[in-house]
Amino acid sequence: MFKLIKQSPVSARIGMLIVGLNLAVALFAPLIAPYEETGVVGDVWETSSSAFLLGTDHIGRDLFTRMVYGARNTIALSFTITGLSFFMGVFMGFVAAVKKGWVDQGISRVVDIIMAFPTLIFALMVLSIMGPSVPTLIFTIAILDSTRVFRLSRAVAMDIEVLEFVEAARLRGEGLWWIIRHEILPNAMPPLMAEFGLRFCFVFLFIAALSFLGLGLQPPLADWGGMVRENAGAINFGILIPLIPAAAIAVLTVGVNLIVDWFLHLSSGLHE
Amino acid sequence: MSNLLKIRNLHIEGFYENQWQPIVKNVSLELKRGEVLGLIGESGAGKSTIGLAAMGYTRQGCRLASGSIDLEGTELFGASDEDLRLIRGSKVAYVAQSAAASFNPSHRVIRQYAEAPVHHGLKSYKEAEEEAVELYRRLFLPTPEKIGYRFPHELSGGQLQRAMVAMAMSCEPDIIVFDEPTTALDVTTQIEVLAAVKEITEKMNKAALYITHDLAVVAQVAHRIMVLRNGKMVEEGETRRLIKNPKEKYTRDLLNVRKSMDNHEIDPSSDVILNINNVAATYTGHDNVIEDIDLKVQRGQTVALVGESGSGKSTLARVITGLLPRTTGDISFLGQSLSTTLKQRKKDDLRRLQMIYQMPDTALNPRHTVRKVIGRPLKFYFGLKGKAAELRIRELLEKIELNPDAYIDRLTTELSGGEKQRICIARALAAEPELIICDEVTSALDQLVAEGILNLLQDLQNKTDVSYLFITHDLATVKAIADKIVIMLQGKIVEQGEKKKVLSPPHHTYTDKLLASVPKMDPDWLDTLLEERASTYL
Amino acid sequence: MENLTQLIFKRCLASVATLFVISIIIFIGVELLPGDVAQAVLGQQATPETVDAFRKELKLDLPPMVRYGAWLKGVAHGDFGNSLANGRPVADQIGWRLGNTLFLALLTSAIAVPLAICLGMLAAFYRNTLFDRCISISTLSFISFPEFFIAYILILVFSIQLNWLPSLAAVNENMGLGTRIYTVLLPAMTLTCVVTAHMMRQTRAAIINVLASAYIEMAQIKGIKRLRIIVLHAFPNSLSPVINVVALNMAYLIVGVVIVEVVFVYPGLGQLLVDSVAKRDLPVVQASGLIFSVVYILLNLIADILSMLSNPKLRQSRI
């Protein structure tokens, strides 16, 4: 593992640094943040000063504090959703690939239908019906996202499934779970790891977009997308405050993507 | 006669594992006008790389490191891209192994024929078109006036390969490089392509490099043969001399492949363990892929199931294993009828019937160690764990002639092709089977490695009295190891019987054609065969 | 082998079936509202009379099958019911907003598609050079940026610092084409950045894939010039994957368009949808959701048909 990191290119190291820093901030948010998450401590849109590192937001909360808690909320939420979506997607994908027949047909058709909706539109419709609560948010996005994971893991598992070592296991009389666990999963790991990174980026941006539209995490919880929305008006006065959370979203996504790129290169580019 | 091509001290390097490593080491060769030089060797010998270097071309990730490639006084080493482009196609042409992949699917075959001469400014499209038809005729392609106007995917493999030979001739080059042009083809189709190659090299007097791993094939077309191994030259000589009187041990080994098997006698009264009775099967629900299959395998017997691609031999294996349910008939194994599907079979039936595959690379899980591969059937069938399993794994590794200490903890990806195939054999043996289905187990391996595997299988049979159902398209293998031969064509068995009976006349017409098509080490074999065929057809 | 017309016909049938299922899902979605829709929308303070009236308005007193039939029939005639927020017919609100959204999407694709294909081809032909690396890093960044980040940066530069372009895309019905383009240029640029990045990366990958095939090597070995290889050998075979890439990203535009419309307060369908979701104006949500889905499905259908038509093996089997 350490050897692998040692060989990593500069871009991947930058990515790891960004992701590491963000995780640290998210984990130790209460220790880092100088003020309460929702405390109004200053004037509206104050510029940066020793008291307010990044200035204050549209109702006078410390922006740095909000950024730190925002990291925590947004990253935790995205991670939960990606994890859930992966669990569902990979599970169903593998079962469909190994079982084939009507099981595969059934799941695939349902997935086709869900994927026939544009994701954002589907999410907006569900949220309008169910209302934007955190559990709704988690399940809606996780289910939507798991369709893409399903497609990939099914395709990967299909590619592995036709190889003779899986046939050999079948002929031996092994059961479904053994085949998935021992024959398919270890070989599907590299593409799935890369996909996890990509899906995380997607979910993260998706939540940011929903929050930006006012339908994600609800105030007064700090959340980067929502902070952009709340402070959007400032841009017209040439105040850069909304760009700070927006840039934070961009930087973290770039970071994850840099690592993913390296991973994809590792798993595919060896024989180039 | 002067030399057309003179390669001196050629070194070629390839970039892998983050550094430049030699692929071709200090190879020199000469080629005169009208002469055919055979380059022969196993995989990794560097023969294709040398062939491509004759036109100043290297694949991506390779480079010409040093040496000289002199083509009629022009030095290709270090020549500019434009100079090389002018030579390629017009002075030196290339025939690749896979015609299906080498033809652009978007253009008609004849258009691809005409492209090079028109592009090099040698002929008009009209002239090229007329010549193409003439060449198609000479290369025995059916309906030569029309066939060129089809798209590549509308031609069969053998036809495409001949169309590619024609395409290489389109600029009337001085040299043609043939890179394993028949390897992907069935034996009966191979003859057609070899005849086409012969037509060009002999009647049209072209110089050629003929690259192959099969000595018998190259003996038919080459005047001289160069044997290569690991990027180095082993020996070179005039074809007849080299075959009759090889200097190096490696060449002798290649020549002796599959000649040395002892024929073990089996007791004709030994019990029948597999009895296939009037079996048919289909993939689609209609149109049987195999039909009327009757077949018996006795204890300790090796039954070879022979046929070309599409003959249904692999389908039959799938039916026996239960991967594909049979639609009619019965299969009894050790006296009891086997369930049609895999799911309904008893664990013990599964254990007694094992399978070894063609591709050892894909038959072993790349994430498993040797211990896990062999240990799993031990645990699964016999509940062996811990020390007992360890001992048994080591014993099995010794049986397949691999050192247990060195191999037991290796990942399967850290093994060579031959070693992987041995592990597959050990995995099958671990189940203590009565019958092993061997599906083309040697065709993905180099000849000498394959020889080792066949010897091992024979040894194991002598020790354990296991039976083999040996599926193959390679008649040389069949001759070496089979006790009984079953010949399949288009889903049906056309002939079966004891080896001696099947191999000696009178044959079924298809058996005859099949046997006649297997190249012999005799350099006159192809000429004689073609003459015979010409006289029978006239 | 099936011939091309059959394949296309089958694909169209599948799309129609999907549309049908989607209309049912969108309809049932409203049914599934926890508790009584009317009660939920009107809130706890509503009197039973108002709830009753509202139920009539939504035709909740009829059985679901009947209501679905009536709804679908209405939709087919362009009648999406009335908005809950202001009581006006939904179709009236949607009409010109849909036009605006399509205009923005068209303008974006007119810029993005040629740009992305050119850049993608260049990056593929000059792969592993400095040019390729620059392009690959910048597209990676654009993919990672949220749409609103790009939007605000463009606003900051072009409307606040330079004061060249308006930061609000306030279009109205009487605008000429020129002014209209000028007004929506910033949103179009934002969308172009996002879509081009995706499209270009995939175009590059598709072409590199083709360039690695044996027939390209064969053409090189035949001594064909590089330009000719690209135009005659690589291009016809890349057509099918590239068309697929383009169409897929057009579909991606739909998602981007919603956010960009909100940033620039552009009176399009996306903004209407977001507003209605916030107000829980279900008939409007239903209608705009359905329209977006139809467009999306149509785009996917066109993509598949075009890539079938440009697939050499399928195309030739027509004869």
Automatic annotation (TrEMBL), chain A:
It is a multi-pass membrane protein. InterPro entries: BP-dependent_transpt_permease (IPR050366), MetI-like (IPR000515), MetI-like_sf (IPR035906). This is Peptide/nickel transport system permease protein. It comes from Desulfocicer vacuolatum DSM 3385. Residues 71-260 form the ABC transmembrane type-1 domain. It comes from the Bacteria. GO terms for cellular component: plasma membrane. Signal peptide: none annotated. The keyword NAD does not apply. The keyword Transmembrane helix applies. Keywords: Cell membrane, Membrane, Transmembrane, Transmembrane helix, Transport. Coiled coil: none annotated.
TrEMBL record, chain B:
InterPro entries: AAA+_ATPase, ABC_Ni/Peptide_Import, ABC_transporter-like_ATP-bd, ABC_transporter-like_CS, Oligopep_ABC_C, P-loop_NTPase. Residues 5-255, 274-515 form the ABC transporter domain. It comes from the Bacteria. Pfam families: ABC_tran, oligo_HPY. It comes from Desulfocicer vacuolatum DSM 3385. CDD domains: ABC_NikE_OppD_transporters. Keywords: ATP-binding, Cell inner membrane, Cell membrane, Membrane, Nucleotide-binding, Translocase, Transport. It is a peripheral membrane protein. It is found in: Cell inner membrane. SMART domains: AAA (SM00382). This is Peptide/nickel transport system ATP-binding protein. GO terms for cellular component: plasma membrane. GO terms for biological process: peptide transport. PANTHER family: ATPASE AAA-TYPE CORE DOMAIN-CONTAINING PROTEIN, OLIGOPEPTIDE TRANSPORT ATP-BINDING PROTEIN APPD. Gene3D superfamilies: P-loop containing nucleotide triphosphate hydrolases. GO terms for molecular function: ATP binding; ATP hydrolysis activity. SUPFAM superfamilies: P-loop containing nucleoside triphosphate hydrolases. Its main location: membrane. Belongs to the ABC transporter superfamily.
From TrEMBL, chain C:
It is found in: Cell membrane. It comes from the Bacteria. It is a multi-pass membrane protein. Keywords: Cell membrane, Membrane, Transmembrane, Transmembrane helix, Transport. The keyword Flavoprotein does not apply. Residues 98-303 form the ABC transmembrane type-1 domain. The chain crosses the membrane at residues 12-30, 102-125, 137-161, 181-200, 242-267, 287-309. GO terms for cellular component: plasma membrane. It holds the Pfam family BPD_transp_1_N. GO terms for biological process: transmembrane transport. InterPro entries: BPD_transp_1_N (IPR045621), MetI-like (IPR000515), MetI-like_sf (IPR035906). PANTHER family: DIPEPTIDE TRANSPORT SYSTEM PERMEASE PROTEIN DPPB-RELATED. Belongs to the binding-protein-dependent transport system permease family. This is Peptide/nickel transport system permease protein. It comes from Desulfocicer vacuolatum DSM 3385. The lineage of its organism: Bacteria, Pseudomonadati, Thermodesulfobacteriota, Desulfobacteria, Desulfobacterales.
